[in-house]
Amino acid sequence: MTEKWNELTPEEEHIIVQKGTERPFTGEYNSFKGNGVFVCRRCNAPLYHSSDKFDSGCGWPSFDDEISGAVKRIPDADGRRVEIVCANCGGHLGHVFHGERLTPKDTRHCVNSLSIRFLPHEKEAASPTKQGRAIFAAGCFWGVEYYFKREPGVIATSVGYTGGHKDKPTYKDVCYTDTGHAEAIEVKFDPAVTSFEKLARLFFEIHDPTQLNRQGPDVGSQYRSAVYYLDEEQKTITEKLIGELRARGFDLVTEVTEASTYWPAEDYHQDYYAKTGHAPYCHKRVERFAS
User: In the chain, what are the domain boundaries?
Assistant: First the structure.
């Protein structure tokens, strides 16, 4: 929803929209040090923690990690590099490089200063914009994340495990032992742009909520359909939507359960389809609320 984006100067538009590059060693954040978070200059989505910034000597701000789900990787037009853009608004950030051995994470996000803005932690905490949060389970979390990341107003996503009894479960634990966990997604969103109800409607449309303990070819309780509500309002909204769908003839098996600890999954599961270039094999969007 572009009406919510910040107005850009011509220089910022050249970098963020037209995918330009500022001259090295000229950006305000190249040698900058501070304790806080870097956000997208166009849409204010959080992108990088200051603790992940390092001096690479390249002339542009460098980070060896991003906030989970905040940055999208796409092939660059030059056919050689990997471009990074804000996952929320698509604004150009720079490029990402691997194999340089500059930090233990062996990753360098080379970012234009004009693409980002720094918020000290005290200002971040005082920001009038509060992030909403939701947790859903709808089968294989790869496909679920694929759709939520593309929804307007979604700031960040991560995939993980919840609803079980084992602390710090691994993918192997969840798949091959009785942990009770479901593959789930944590969604952080801007309440000024979207709402829990809109996200819950998307949840019911990207999977089959009538399938018990499975989703397509994936079978097992870890693939169950569930909404893990964080407050009574989320519970009420979810139950209302379930009532609407049942009135339309859908025999839903979706669980509505109070949220417990959410455990992020291993890094290789995060943003899986963007990393691999594959398309979801067990999820597709089906309109279920049409009048």
Answer: 2-124, 129-276
